[in-house]
Amino acid sequence: MGTLFFAIAVLHTFTVKRFQSIANQFPEGSVLENVFHLLGEVEVVFGVWAGIWFAYFSLSHSYSEALNYIENLNFREPLFVFVIMTVAATKPVLQISKLLIFNLAKVLPFHLKISRYLLTLTLGPLLGSFITEPAAMTVTALILLDEFYQSESSDAFKYLTLGILFVNVSIGGVLTHYAAPPVLMVADKWGWNSVFMMSTFGWRAVLAVVTNSVVGALVFSKTLKGMHLNTQTKNRSPFWLVAIHLIIIGMIVFSSHHPVVFLAVFLFFLGVADITKEFQDPIQLKSSLLVAFFLAGLVVFGEMQTWWLKPLLAKLNPLSLYLGSTGLTAIMDNAALTYLGSQVDGLTDPMKYALVAGAVTGGGLTIIANAPNPAGFSILKGSFGQEGISPLMLLLGGLIPTLVAAISFWLLP
After folding, report:
1. What is the spatial distance between Cα 116 and Cα 111, in angstroms, rounded to a whole number?
2. How far apart, in whole angstroms, are the C-alpha atoms of residue 124 and residue 146?
């Protein structure tokens, strides 16, 4: 039944536009209009269905059994994503990120807008190997929103760029052993450290990230040249405040395995943000909470897929495992996939590589494929009109960058 509810939730993510259309058929402000608008928000889908499953489990078994199951799950990742996304979306962090990328863009021998596009989609995702993927996704998506997702931009540009963003963030976090959720799930058990990650996965990831960014810049060079340059520099946050924010991010990343600690740091951050609000934009708590709600729903359903997923992974050879991992990631969070794969006894080193490489390769195909994707989705969805981001178009936009990643991770010697 857990798998059935999970499958319904996956199908629901592909039909959110239909719920929005139904909502528009009811009087504005009515209860039914609000209910269907809620069901048309991708971020609430898995949380809602997890709640329905919890009610079913409580009635079919007992409330105590359902509660025991929930309390034994690990919700560290949704909590961490909520905290790091909120802090990374602040004005001081975005300001220093833009300053770094835009100054480097002046060095490249291209049109300035093309250089900014290239570096945003390259340095932003690769930064995920050090400040974690959710933080990198948040910062990169905010820069894309401010600089490139303009009203005159075509849907083709927006969807391919979104696909590149999701894939690059998914593979850009594998230069270290602690930043990408699917790597983090297996690193300790398999003895993978950052030196191993850099030599085995890292250089392939860098090659694929750069290639994807170059492909996007080449395909849309004319579009990029026609965009206006954002040169606004007024009302900057002071350097000391930027430094405090970076220190807070460092403390959160350092304590990422300990929710009690990073939540305490987060409460301190909220105090800092309140007393420095003249240098801040409004804190993005709502969008961060919705993303955490989405991921918490995935956590609830993830453990219930063990009965079919572990036997399937155990029967595959390295190539089949790589392809299967890439495909399964599209319908299941890649961290949950590698975690379940790590429970399979007797995996050889080539099979371990195939499992993780496939999980990060397929991490940009859907919103549920990689934990940071809902963060980017939440930030950029307003640029796609009233109907929001189409899951099918996102899938199509991610195919080319996913193919580039597959060539880099599997076909290169």
Report:
1. 9
2. 14
Q: How far apart are CA 184 and CA 181, in angstroms?
A: 5
The CA distance from 361 to 171, in Å, is 7
Residue 234 to residue 103: CA distance in whole angstroms: 17
Average pLDDT, stretch 7-15? Answer: 87
- Could you tell me which residue, 37 or 265, shows the higher pLDDT? 265
Element (H, E) at 270: helix 259-275
Query: How many Å apart are CA 361 and CA 326, to the nearest integer?
Result: 6
The model scores a pTM over 0.85: yes
Calpha distance 183→359 (Å, rounded): 9
- 204: pLDDT strictly greater than 60: yes
The one-letter amino acid code at 92 reads P
Q: Which of 330, 373, 337 is nearest to 355 (CA)?
A: 337
According to DSSP, residue 372 is labeled: T
Distance CA 117, CA 109 (A): 13
d(CA 377, CA 393): 13
Predicted confidence band at 304 (pLDDT cuts at 50, 70, 90)? confident
The C-alpha atoms of residue 339 and residue 182 are separated, in whole angstroms, by 7
Contacts of 317 (CB under 8 A, 6+ apart): 351
Q: What is the C-alpha to C-alpha distance for residues 350 and 118, in angstroms, rounded to an integer?
A: 33
Percentage of residues in the chain having pLDDT higher than 70: 99
User: Which residues are CB-neighbours of 279 under 8 A, at least 6 positions away?
Assistant: 91, 92, 235, 237, 238, 241
The least confident of 193-197, 275-279, 305-309, 380-384 is: 305-309
Is the confidence at residue 232, as pLDDT, over 70? Answer: no
Helices marked H in 173-258 — which ranges? Answer: 181-190, 194-197, 203-219, 221-225, 239-254
* pLDDT tens-digit series, residues 213-231: 999 999 999 999 988 877 6
How is residue 164 written in tokens? 């590149």
Check pLDDT > 60 for residue 195. Answer: yes
Contact between 397 and 159 under an 8 Å Cβ cutoff? The reply is yes
**What is the pLDDT, as a whole number, of residue 231?**
61
**Structure tokens that stand for 288 in this block:** 């961060």
Quote the CA–CA distance of 285 and 230 in Å, as a whole number: 26
